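Onboarding guide, step 5: your first structure request.
Type a short instruction followed by the sequence, for example:

Predict the 3D structure of this protein.
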Amino acid sequence: MKPSSPSRKTSVQRRLMCAALFAPVVQAAPALSSTTPPNPSLAYLTTLSDALGLELTPQVRRKLAVALPAVRQREIMQSVHERLHAVVGDAWQTARETVPACVEDDLAANRLEVIGGLGFSHTELALMLATGGDAA
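The system replies with structure tokens like these:
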């Protein structure tokens, strides 16, 4: 018998990692940008990350963007956009409960990318890359 499930251990580590990377925005809900990104996946994920109050340091965001080729970023963002839009839609208030379930689903389906020795689910990457709204 295994002492603990690797997925469960990874999930706990992932939540701690996300807590370190994402700092809740202290101000009121951010205003949406007057310029809409041309990519619908990016536009949706940017709005979702804003609704969640996610903030990522520019240095970490740049490292993530550089580590993944632009084509791979677009593939991940499109896939995550389709999944989250189907579940969350425009009910932004449900995202806090939905996103962790999507991360768990990514782990179960092995939708992961290793960047700098750390494994990130596609959901995490898409939201991180969309934070700030200027992803590839």
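Each response can be followed by summary notes, for example: Confidence is low (pLDDT under 50) at residues 23-34.
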